[in-house]
Design brief:
Length: 383
């Protein structure tokens, strides 16, 4: 077992649910903040006994939903519980997702005082018509205030989320979003293409023909221009959709992509514990009220659990590492699974021959530039 782990804290409440979102999000006004925090603290105390006993937290990530709907004092209670149960590494990365319209300089100062040292803003776009299409609550003016407010509140590590390939969004719109974001000089940028997830309004609208997806050529050009433009501003692509100034890569997300140990608390949260060539995964009750009741009654709200082994565990190891620009360390793979990548996945040779994967140096497999454009298809070969 590793000596440290990452902690994910899910806050499922939003003022409105975006039509493209398939996360475990629940619209509520007001939301049961105190009861939900009590449940999170109870769950932390449960896990401090097993299986994470005597281990310290290296990263903490408050995700959602909209964690910035919760008061700084509530976030502080969870962090205090982390310190008293497990202990938190002195240099821990502690992130909080925030929406621009849900914060002020005062609340951001409160989060900073509580111990949050990294903000991740859901900007998505600076264009009014794009924000409207996405169903976002913030105005374009509010998106432009996000980073200045964070700086005034004392944050030196800020990330912005942007989205492309949105119906009605032009190449020029996307170029303007990238340039505007870079001008604010955040330490980290995430740039995701819009996906149509089953069960969302966007999925249904697309299937019915009422929403037309962006042309593939436009989407590919937006993807490639992202890498060109952000590189020109000093951002290094370290994962398919993530870019950072040197030293500001998301340590919490890197732990996911490297298949490290992480504990998820909150409604619908997932956890992962690697053990040699296998891994145990479990997840919580998704309904927030049922989750809170179970966590408060028993300390646990787990509803599903599985042990992943064999080719399934090996395939997950391959495609998650391939998401990163450093790629897959084949020696680490062989040490963990007792076979080479080529032995377990003979199709690797075909993918290399097609120019989608390459061995940049002995023992390291990575996506090529063409492979990045069809990354999901490459990953599917290992699932």
């Amino acid at each position: 077992m590793s000596e440290t782990f990452g902690l994910y804290v899910h806050v499922p409440y939003c003022r409105a649910k975006c039509p493209y979102c398939d996360f475990n999000v629940h619209v509520a006004t007001p939301w049961p903040e105190r009861r939900y925090i009590d449940a999170l603290v109870a769950e932390l105390h449960h896990y401090a006994r097993t299986p994470f006993v005597d281990r310290r937290i290296a990263t903490i990530y408050f995700g959602g939903g909209t964690p910035s709907l919760f008061a700084p004092a509530s976030i502080g209670r969870v962090l205090d519980a982390c310190r008293s149960t497990f202990g938190v590494e002195p240099d821990a990365e502690i992130s909080l997702e925030a929406n621009p319209e849900s914060v002020s300089v005062e609340t951001l100062r409160g989060y900073r005082a509580a111990g949050v040292n990294r903000l991740s803003f859901g900007i998505e776009s600076f264009q009014p018509h794009v924000l409207k299409r996405l169903g976002r609550l913030q105005t374009a003016a509010e998106t432009r205030l996000a980073v200045p407010m964070a700086r005034e509140a004392g944050f030196a590590n800020v990330s912005l989320d942007l989205m492309f390939a949105i119906p009605g969004q032009s190449r020029d719109d996307w170029a303007a979003d990238l340039e505007t974001a870079a001008a604010f000089e955040p330490e980290h940028l995430s740039a995701y293409n819009l996906t149509y997830e089953e069960g969302t309004p966007f999925f249904d609208l697309r299937r019915s023909g009422k929403l037309v997806a962006l042309d593939d050529d436009d989407e590919a050009e937006m993807f490639e221009s992202t890498r060109r433009r952000l590189a020109g501003h000093g951002y290094r692509a370290y994962e398919v959709s993530n870019f950072a100034k040197p030293g500001f890569e998301s340590r919490h997300n890197l732990n996911y992509w490297h298949l490290g140990a992480y504990l998820g608390i909150g409604a619908g949260a997932h956890s992962h514990e690697p053990s040699g060539a296998t891994a145990r995964r479990w997840s919580n009750e998704r309904d927030p009220e049922t989750y809170a009741r179970r966590a408060l009654d028993a300390g646990s709200a787990v509803v599903s659990e599985e042990t992943l082994g064999g080719s399934a565990a090996a395939g997950e190891f391959v495609f998650l590492h391939l998401r990163t620009m450093e790629g897959l360390d084949e020696r680490a793979f062989e040490k963990r699974f007792g076979s080479t990548v080529d032995e377990l996945f003979p199709e690797t040779a075909r993918i290399i021959a097609e120019g989608l994967l390459e061995r940049r140096e002995p023992g390291r497999l990575a996506l090529t530039a063409p492979g990045l454009l069809v990354a999901d298809s490459v990953f599917a070969s290992f699932v």
